[in-house]
């Protein structure tokens, strides 16, 4: 009823496919032995390129079977001509293979160059964005400072415009007492007034608290219940009822005392 699970896939534990032993009869050359160079992971399982290679090997073996024999002198020129033609075909095929390989390398190089260009463009765009952000922050700070200076200068001009001719203004007492932020309610220390200088004026002065005679008179006026303490003795708790039974709470207290001991 229990199952286990390993830390590895089955594919990671697989080895190369098993190749059994074989015996070649004398006088026979199996075509399968011509593929002995192909191993698992290096040509196997066979793809399109391997199939084309096998077909070319078959064509070459068929061509070798059609070559004239070497013991006939009249056929040597023909044999040499056929071998030259085959060599030209092989060189042409090799050139095609080289061109294909060069095209593949060229495509890889183009991809790498394109990727490098894209990365460089992204880096340039990021740098430009950061530069633009820094300029925007500097611009906002400069605009904020200009607005602050503008508001400050505007308040100064408004204050200066109130008294253009330098005339003295008459004091408006009603306005001062209706405005709780005026100098009457909240005077400023910069004009020579310090609210904490005359704080002793607000100290409470009481005859009954500051003089001995006042304390005696205050003590005499207090009732006796304040000066004379009366203690009432606590009444004992009754542990038995009127009928003579012991209460449950009393039994519980006795048990708790025993447990405590």
From TrEMBL:
UniProt keyword terms in alphabetical order: Cell projection, Cytoplasm, Cytoskeleton
All copies of domain CFAP91, residue ranges: 4-156
One GO cellular component term: axoneme
Cell compartment(s), UniProt: Cytoplasm, Cytoskeleton, Cilium axoneme
InterPro entries (alphabetical): CFAP91, CFAP91_dom
Pfam families: CFAP91 (PF14738)
Family: Belongs to the CFAP91 family.
Protein name, per record: Cilia- and flagella-associated protein 91
Source organism: Pelecanoides urinatrix (Common diving petrel)
Lineage: Eukaryota, Metazoa, Chordata, Craniata, Vertebrata
Gene name as annotated: Maats1_0
